[in-house]
Amino acid sequence: MAEQTQAKKYSKPLPHLDEENRPWWEALQRHELYIQKCGNCGDIRYYPRALCTNCMSSQVQWIKCSGRATVYTFTTTYQNQAPGFRESLPYIMAYVELEEGVKMLTNLVDCQPEQAKIGMPVEVVFEDVTPAVTLAKFRPAR
Amino acid sequence: MSLSRKTAVAGVFEHPTRFAPDKSLFQIMAESVRGALDDAGLTIKDVNGLCTTGIGMSGMGIVGLCDYLNLTPNFVDSTSIGGSSFVAHTAHAAAAIHAGLCDLCVVVYGSTAASSRFAIGTGGERGGAGDPCDQYEIPFGPTTVGAYAMIAQRHMHDYGTTSEQLAEIAVTMRLHASMNPAAKYRDPITVEDVLASRIISSPLHLLDCCIISDGGGALVIASAERARDLKKKPVYILGAGETVRHAARGQRDFLEIAAAQSGRLALERAGVMHKDIDMAMIYDSFTITVLATLENLGFCKRGEGGAFVSGGRLRFDGEFPINTDGGGLSSNHPGMRGIFLVIEAARQLRGECGPRQVKDCKIALVHGTGGALGTRHSGATLILGNQ
Fold first, then answer.
1. Which residue of A has its CA nearest to B147?
2. Which residues in chain B touch residue A80, judged by CB atoms under 8 angstroms apart?
3. What is the pTM of this model?
4. How far is C-alpha B280 from the geometric centre of its chain's CA atoms?
5. How much is the pLDDT for B122?
6. Residue A131: which residues within 8 A CB-CB, separation 6 or more?
7. Chain-chain contact of B133 with A13 (C-beta, under 8 angstroms)
């Protein structure tokens, strides 16, 4: 029984939550995806951070994303010796371009390696990996 | 103020070992320093500047190395921007000498990456409280190979670049390695061999990836005036550039890499044109690294890299010789290899390369890449000349 509990433990790396990124991760827990917009100059940015890289303003607006994106580029990984990943080979890593105009790194799921294509429409899916962390992954749009 | 021809590489040494399970990296570094000083006809007493960084070394490793070598330098630099670090160090050493911060500077690298079994490229990344940017990447399983693979995938999509074209780079590096007695892999390979090797991260095959070795090397940097009185022919530093590229808040053009900026700066500062370059040492962590770097340095237009690397152009006897030592793809890659780029370019400019010598080699370009092209990376470019 103890062994079973051990086997179910999530062994991939987890993010470190802090003041500047917590709202983003909390939104993912609610199965919502946001990007940031500067409240002063309107510049948009991913990943979230405390200051605008254009004007250094601390005024942050959050824009809720549609969850629709296209694949910008991808790779199917057949070798990764890190715990958690070596057990799930092969997996697809991709940069997707959100409708809102930023690219983010993610995994393509529910997608065979030969199915993945650049330009392919994808949609966000939320994967609750621990009680505190939900990851935004993408699957071929339905 | 131009630094051009004010300083020179006065001594070089490449540690011949590719596997040294019984040596510490400090021993490899010290043996490399001795080798480079011997090459210049100098001793450790002449050294008052030191540049180093590395993997397997602590963040303050340079302090420990000063202790090991019993040095109390007037100038130290541990700039750590990945594999390009030592290309940048060479420029920093030149600037420091020119500014009077030190007289003679050693740049050194050593590593036991192979015998310590570092899973370079496919080890994944650690979790926890790293840099803020890591928090958005490491949950998805990035590897160094994966980052470069995504650049290759996009290049193929946009420009029709083929796996055969990438393979030709690996085949040429192996040909050069066959003429370098110290190279780790010297048996010839074909395009078919590269394509038949297993996929590590699509579309990159095993033979599209650099090898992992132990190794080390050192450079002695001096004023041009002083270098002219030393044992070997000076290799003048004509120009340098460096920069960092990254995701640019999610708005980056992936195929424009750090080399575009560092290369432009180095060429401008050296006052030389692309057509003046007789050979180049281009960081070859992966075959795609070479192709993307050549485009960004401006040796061909964006999208034309596939054609440019084909037809034997990159061979030591071709129109645009690169990586005549066999590169990271076949000779050595002890985690970071910027220093070997400078060493081989200096040897070519001195005419010491035997069967792989590039004819009439007067000006060389060195470009180091550090980090992962698909995400955060650095570029450092040097222009070297023998006149």
1. A75
2. 122-124, 141, 143, 146
3. 0.96
4. 11
5. 74
6. none
7. no
